[in-house]
Amino acid sequence: MGEPWNCNDTEEMSALMSLALDGLLDARDQDRLHRHLAHCPACQAEWVAMQQVSELFKLAPLAGPRLGFATRVERRLAEKHRQRRRAFGGVAVLTGSLSLAVLTVTTAAIIVLGIVAWNWLDAIPAIKEGTTAVSQLAGGIGLVSRGVRLFLGDLLLVYGLPVLLVVGVSLLVLLGMWIWLFVRRPRRYEGNGYI
Fold first, then answer.
1. Is the Cβ–Cβ distance between 119 and 152 less than 8 Å?
2. Which of 34, 40, 107, 137 sits most deeply, having the most CB atoms within 10 A of its CB?
3. How many domains is the chain built from?
4. pTM: predicted TM-score of the whole model, two decimal places
5. Same domain for 83 and 46?
6. Is residue 193 part of a domain?
7. Are 37 and 43 in contact (CB under 8 A)?
8. Residue 4 maps to a domain
């Protein structure tokens, strides 16, 4: 029995054999492969084995997915997309509602407290006409009310613009959030045409 034949071009020839089976070899490489196979028993054995495996694959029936597989997958994908849109919409509505509610309540509270303080402090002198204790208490409250009125007046004169700026900036931030949510919203699911 002879010595086993060692081929120095095994990898290159294997690649050429694979291309030949797929019909992708040009005439020069096909000629080179055939000349090599004529003198190399190791590559001849590999070539025969590759041809047999290729024939087995050609004869084997193709197995496809069960009936309705694509439709089921498509429906699941569409349902997941709907759930994602619902969740995103819920977060957007909740975030927007909470921010609007906080902004509205804060603004309304500032306005109402300012109006109530302004009007309530003017009504205090009517309390003065009661008993002396109440009169003294009312006098003290009257002094405090004048101080508060002056303080609120100065506060609104000095900090009126910053309060308006804070409210304006808050509204701009809220508008920016809504624009961001609108841009990032999930798009309509188009599907792939199976259902």
1. no
2. 40
3. 2
4. 0.34
5. no
6. no
7. yes
8. no
